[in-house]
Amino acid sequence: MRTAVVWDALRAELAALAEATGRDRLDIVDAGGGTGGFAVPLAELGHTVTVVDPSPDSLAALERRAKEKGVGVRALQGDAADLGELLDRDSADLVLCHSVLEYVEDPIGALTAVAGLLRGGGAVSVLTANPVASAIHRALAGHFDEARAVLADPRGSWGDRDPTPRRYTSRTLSELLAATGFVAVEIHGVRVFADLVPSRLVDGEPGAADALVALEQAASTHPVLRDVATQLHALGHRS
Description:
- The chain has helices at about 5-20, 40-45, 55-70, 85, 105-115, 130-140, 145-150, 170-180, 200-205, 210-220; strands at about 25-30, 50-55, 75, 90-100, 120-130, 180-185, 190, 230-239.
- The protein is α/β, with parallel strands linked by helices.
- The protein is globular, with a radius of gyration of 18 Å.
């Protein structure tokens, strides 16, 4: 439910890449892929997947998950900035960069490294935290000063104790992609309502989960609702 909008976009992109390349088995890199929440399902679809992540514990969990599903996923320890050293240039059709740009010291450097991995016509899938949603969530928790700080800070942080160093609006995310040589397609809002609706309203009502997914899909491109989503998702194509 929380990732349905992302998977909708990924499936469409995978189909387009397969048609463009003439290959059903695509080469995919998941930068910061952690325990394989996206990597393992992509491998189950028949793609060749490499996960690069700095955490050895996460990579160990990834390998266990892949083994349980009967698929192979290559696991490499490293940061997003190390992609150019760990992998060959022009070796990937798709790179996932989910919940990474909020934490790296040099977002432009990280996306530039991603661009170096991609073959011509390749794509990057970027998922980032949204400061507007953070302000809403801090306000709903009663932290009004922190909510105001998020809106005032260029990095979208609410203070020194904020575990997320930076967040991106649809504008700043588009600007970052453009600055690193990507042409962005439409940006989608992810988890517009899912983080606000009490779980009892979803778990206790037959069909509620499916209805919420349908609502999320409808809201993901709404010109107003998209920009209050917890996360923003964009596909950038190498120019």
